[in-house]
């Protein structure tokens, strides 16, 4: 299991992915699930994944090889982000079908991956896409400004309550940190370090991003304050009126 989330806002975008991959309680590994592509000043693209690690890595490798070999069509040359999402979807289906053929299987489940692709190309608005295992995709809107992959249920309530299209991008980044903290607290299959990227719309820069581990001072300060404030507010909530419980 994994947890990835991406938020598209009026002023910027935030992307985050955990790095834990496990095949049982005694086999836990760390793999990157968030990759950045682009050309400084011309385009910025982030790709995140959840699902079959083998399929995901095959897709990442193919996309990077196409860039390195300077093929006519690659993530650094496609005219729109929608075309980029279509390219990822087609590549994913190709790799899934190949894996099924090699394994002599007709079942998709063991080879399934999903992706999120977001960013901006010069002269175009920022966009965020969810790419499904079938290869089709949907785009984030002002009404639905964020997408999640993997173990999403524990962190979703925080984003639902605190993030809208007009939310300040750095406020949204804090909310996303707490979304990950809640998920990590409730599900051992999601774990640190967490890869974070924050992008200011129209900057067309290639952010260095940040890898947050267990010793990150700022992350630990807000997660501890959040926990303390939740306990305090619970105590301060109005008492139940007499007879409320029957």
UniProtKB/TrEMBL annotation:
Signal peptide: none annotated. SUPFAM superfamilies: N-terminal nucleophile aminohydrolases (Ntn hydrolases). It comes from the Bacteria. InterPro entries: Ntn_hydrolases_N, Proteasome_sua/b, UCP009120_prtse. Pfam families: Proteasome. This is Peptidase. It comes from Psychrobacter glaciei.
